[in-house]
């Protein structure tokens, strides 16, 4: 049964009524009905951020210190400018109406309304939030959502966490919430919040709190609804309102009416007899800043003051405002017992049917439909443990869809009611050259707390697993980064909010190609939209990052933080330049992906062959430059070491290889792509140009490997490295004393215990660190000097399969290096993928990724909830950094899918 907006029961679709291949489940049909961002089923979702405080867009300071400009301690009293945050919350896709959870255990000094963590100055060095929660489940239209928060029953130890972490150095582990002892004996509530849509604009809500502790404990649950403050900044005086509904047609319930100029009228109804508290989503300027008067006598913290401090005058007795909470009080919840509250958000006024039997039917249906949907997404042959991890990964990906509002021009200029900040607009300050940037979109975030903002290369990786559950959203995300209100007019993609002008690796084309594959090789319009914009981005790379036209690139940061001896984004002394192995490899990789897209498009329009030949030749030029470049014939390849290095070129042209074996030297492997056999027949211009190059420029065509002349449909491979150099690199990569870790490929060779270089009189040193960074470089919040990182491992495995398809059984290596275990290159790729998936597979009952933290407890209350970490210890596999980064670590769900054919079944690849 399904329920319409009135709550009346009526027969609805069941899974068996939609057996078509095109829409194999009810949820697949919903996706077809709402393909774009404006689709009705996408109006409401988990778009409310887990953290808005401490973000760049809320920082209006002269110093640019976002963490201190808008701190956690201010968040419950100060109105946000660009967004909102909350626990397990939802909002409309414009962020006007927000719903979230507030809790009070009758010990905390403030309501638990948002997630807490430490700033860098407070001792944070892993970007780890000091809370425990999990996205449990969800469907891509958000017809079904389930989120769980673990709430301690004792007073939350804010002060202890700050003081203990401030006293620790970088060589010590962070002091976590469980280290305080507050979670001992399971003295916490698991608070589940579940949403089931009866219709696109009719949400049934259930909040269940389970006492897992040994003693009875009190709990106050305050489901809260509020309007984003759009009126206080001097640009738009219009505001909606929330008011108590007095004349209820149904007893044993409370209700508020929500009016908004764009969304219209909604009602939030709470079952039972909760007290409804009202205040305004306005800053308490008197308490925060010593002002004499507030804009509202009942500011944002009014509900907190009423509940925690007992101040009855802190809330509006008239029953109106822009923020309202339903106060459910449970004085004693017995051990093992649970309490449940139910609410409904819809356009329909409360009635006898609001919580009728149809309400429960909606939950039952949506749960069943979610199971049915994932039965088609997650391969049935997987072990149950892998299915569980994959479904949790998809849940995290979907819950990390956040509304992101940021208009840089407005932000730089300040609002009419705020004092201007000339310092923030000084040349060279943050994002001053990105005034065109203006987004108000639902975007896939790496994490809802540590990274409540997008990062360009993270997002590209997100789109791979997202394409398995919601290909239209994945495509929309890739296109969005290329739109004129995101991409810089010069063609640069925005890197991340802290510095849009920084440089992330160019993985967008690779992601677009794989999303196209996962979506069934059917949406050429999507490829055209992405490809044409990436032409601009490619030109930016060539013009800005190949300063002397040698074909060897100077990418800078490239997302790998502290992988070098020094900050590669920082300006070098005059006359110096750093020629980067990884930047050059990324550009070769970029060329190949653009070539691949161009030849695919040329099957439908021959004019695209011109682009294919352009990128083919550009790849060949870069390949030649990887070996020698410039007037001094300096090579990135070190023959003695059998490895690629960055090279520092001095003003006099002499070169100093940065001889540290890191991921930088492995990335040339990415420069490999196979050329489909049908190119010989269907792309005659490409074939003709290749013949011409072989005749006139044979030295340039060396990277084209073929099992024939390459023009008759035989196998061809474009490769940045020769088979001989590939073998030498792989011998290091699969050596356990160097790069091969139990759970993937390390970012720095384990053999590099300490390595030093004298750079023009300055001694620089780095060493293998399998875990968190011991330096403050890039804030010290991530480490590329030893740990395993999911995204680059996935890329390396992907390219080993490319080599494997070409060489077959003719190219084998020993894994581990020096052993008798001989593997093909495709089997070598399986070793990498197996290590990554092994992070989440229990060993002696425990997942390696959960390490020594409480998440690694064998207690089922912890063991049932996998966490997805930012990166992993190079020796043990323990998860590090952000604890909920189902962004790129959500790629594990993709790895659990059967590998897709390289071409649709009706095409022959000749491979």
In brief:
The chain has 911 residues and is α+β, with helices and mostly antiparallel strands.
Low-confidence stretches: 1-19, 906-911
Rounded to the nearest angstrom, the radius of gyration is 28 Å
**Biggest β-sheet strands, sense, barrel:** 9 strands, antiparallel
Report how far apart the termini are. Answer: 50 Å
Mean pLDDT: 91
Given the structure, what is the number of helices?
A: 23
- Which class do the helix and strand fractions yield? alpha+beta
Number of strands: 35
Oligomeric description of these chains: single chain
Global morphology: globular
Protein name: Glucosidase
Biased composition (Basic and acidic residues): 19-32
Domain Mannosylglycerate hydrolase MGH1-like glycoside hydrolase: 451-670, 719-886
InterPro entries: 6-hairpin_glycosidase_sf, 6hp_glycosidase-like_sf, Glycoside_hydrolase_63, MGH1-like_GH
List its salient traits.
six-stranded antiparallel β-sheet, globular, 911 residues, disordered N terminus, 6hp_glycosidase-like_sf, nine-stranded antiparallel β-sheet, single chain, 28% helix, 23 helices, disordered C terminus, alpha+beta
Descriptive overview:
- This is Glucosidase.
- It comes from Tsukamurella soli.
- Residues 19-32 have a biased composition (Basic and acidic residues).
- By secondary structure, the chain is of the alpha+beta class.
- 28% of the residues lie in helices and 19% in strands.
- It is built from 23 helices and 35 strands.
- Strands 6-7-8-9-17-13-12-11-15 form a 9-stranded antiparallel sheet. Strands 3-4-5-10-16-14 form a 6-stranded antiparallel sheet, covered by helices on one side.
- A hairpin with a 5-residue loop joins strand 23 (647-649) and strand 24 (655-657).
- Helix 10 packs antiparallel against helix 11 (471-480) and helix 15 (609-627) packs parallel to helix 18.
- The longest helix has 22 residues, at 524-545.
- The radius of gyration is 28 Å and the shape is globular.
């Amino acid at each position: 049964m399904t329920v319409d907006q009135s709550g009346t029961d009526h027969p609805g679709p069941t899974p068996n009524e939609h057996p078509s291949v095109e829409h194999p489940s009810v949820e697949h049909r919903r996706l077809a009905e709402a393909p774009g961002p404006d689709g009705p089923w996408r109006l409401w979702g988990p778009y409310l951020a887990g953290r808005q405080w401490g973000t760049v867009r809320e920082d209006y300071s002269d110093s640019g210190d976002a963490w201190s400009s808008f701190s956690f301690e201010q968040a419950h009293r100060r109105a946000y400018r660009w967004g909102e945050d909350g626990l397990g919350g939802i909002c409309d896709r414009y962020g006007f109406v927000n719903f979230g959870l507030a809790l009070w255990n009758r010990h905390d000094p403030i309501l638990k309304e948002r997630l807490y963590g430490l700033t860098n100055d407070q001792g944070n060095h892993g970007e780890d939030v000091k809370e425990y929660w999990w996205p449990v489940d969800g469907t891509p239209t958000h017809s079904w959502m389930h989120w769980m928060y673990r709430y301690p029953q004792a007073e939350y130890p804010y002060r202890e966490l700050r003081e203990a972490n401030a006293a620790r150095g970088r060589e010590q582990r962070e002091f976590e919430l469980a280290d305080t002892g507050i979670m001992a004996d399971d003295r916490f509530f698991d608070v589940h919040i579940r949403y089931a849509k009866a219709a696109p604009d009719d949400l049934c809500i259930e909040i269940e709190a389970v006492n897992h502790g040994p003693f009875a404990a009190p709990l106050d649950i305050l489901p809260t609804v509020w309007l984003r403050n759009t009126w206080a900044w001097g640009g738009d005086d219009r505001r909606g309102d929330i008011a108590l509904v007095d004349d209820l047609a149904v007893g044993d319930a409370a209700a508020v009416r929500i009016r908004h100029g764009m969304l219209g009228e909604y009602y939030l109804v709470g079952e039972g007899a909760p007290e409804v508290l009202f205040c305004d989503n306005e800053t308490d300027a008197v308490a925060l800043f010593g002002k004499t008067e507030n804009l509202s006598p009942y500011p944002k913290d009014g509900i907190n003051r009423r509940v925690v401090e007992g101040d009855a005058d802190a809330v509006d007795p008239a029953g109106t405002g822009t923020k309202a909470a339903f106060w459910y009080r449970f004085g004693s919840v017995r051990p093992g017992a649970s309490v449940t509250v139910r609410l409904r958000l819809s356009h329909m006024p409360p009635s006898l049917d609001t919580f009728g039997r149809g309400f429960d039917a909606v939950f039952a249906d949506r749960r069943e439909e979610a199971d049915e949907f994932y039965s088609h997404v997650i391969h049935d042959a997987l072990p149950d443990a892998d299915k569980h991890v994959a479904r949790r990964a998809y849940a995290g990906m979907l819950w990390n869809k956040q509304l992101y509002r940021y208009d840089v021009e407005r932000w730089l200029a300040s609002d009419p009611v705020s004092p201007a900040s000339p310092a923030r607009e000084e040349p060279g300050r943050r994002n001053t050259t990105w005034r065109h940037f203006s987004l108000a979109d639902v975007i896939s975030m790496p994490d809802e707390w540590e990274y409540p903002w997008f990062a360009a290369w993270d997002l590209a990786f997100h789109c791979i697993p997202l394409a398995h559950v919601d290909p239209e959203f994945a495509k929309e995300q890739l296109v969005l980064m290329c739109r004129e209100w995101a991409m810089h007019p010069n063609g640069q993609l925005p890197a991340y909010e802290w510095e849009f002008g920084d440089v992330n690796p160019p993985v967008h084309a690779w992601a677009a190609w794989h999303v196209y594959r996962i979506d069934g090789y059917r949406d050429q319009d999507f490829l055209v939209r992405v490809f044409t914009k990436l032409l601009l981005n490619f030109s930016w790379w060539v013009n800005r990052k190949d300063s002397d036209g040698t074909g060897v690139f100077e990418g800078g940061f490239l997302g790998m933080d502290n992988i070098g001896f020094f900050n590669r984004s920082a300006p070098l002394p005059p006359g110096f330049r750093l020629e980067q192995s990884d930047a050059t490899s990324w550009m070769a990789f970029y060329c190949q992906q653009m070539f691949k897209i161009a030849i695919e498009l040329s099957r439908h329009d021959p004019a695209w062959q011109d682009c294919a030949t352009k990128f083919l030749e550009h790849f060949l030029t870069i390949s030649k430059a990887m070996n020698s470049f410039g007037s001094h014939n300096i090579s990135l390849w070190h023959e003695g070491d059998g490895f690629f290095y960055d090279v520092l070129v001095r003003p006099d042209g002499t070169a100093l290889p940065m001889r540290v074996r890191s991921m930088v030297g492995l990335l040339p492997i990415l420069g490999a792509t196979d050329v489909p056999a049908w190119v010989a027949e269907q792309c005659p211009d490409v074939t003709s140009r290749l013949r011409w190059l072989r005749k006139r420029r044979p030295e340039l065509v060396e990277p084209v490997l073929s099992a024939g002349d390459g023009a008759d449909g035989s196998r061809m491979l474009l490769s940045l490295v020769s088979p001989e150099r590939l073998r030498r690199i792989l011998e290091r990569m699969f050596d356990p004393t160097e790069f091969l870790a139990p759970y993937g490929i390390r970012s720095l060779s384990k053999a590099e215990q300490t390595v030093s270089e004298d750079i023009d009189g300055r001694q620089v040193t780095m060493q293998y660190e399998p875990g968190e960074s011991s330096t403050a470089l890039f804030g010290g919040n991530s480490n590329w000097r030893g740990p395993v990182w999911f995204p680059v491992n996935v890329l390396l495995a992907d390219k080993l399969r490319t080599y494997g398809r070409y060489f077959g059984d003719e190219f084998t290596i020993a894994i581990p290096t020096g052993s008798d275990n001989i593997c093909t290159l495709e089997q070598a790729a399986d070793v990498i993928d197996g290590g990554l998936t092994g992070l989440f597979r229990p060993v002696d009952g425990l997942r390696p990724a959960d390490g020594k933290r409480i998440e690694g407890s064998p207690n089922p209350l912890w063991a049932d909830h996998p966490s997805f970490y930012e990166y992993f210890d190079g020796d043990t596999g323990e998860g590090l950094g952000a604890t909920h980064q189902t962004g790129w670590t959500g790629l594990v769900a993709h790895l659990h899918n059967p590998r897709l054919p390289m071409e649709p079944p009706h095409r022959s690849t000749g491979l």
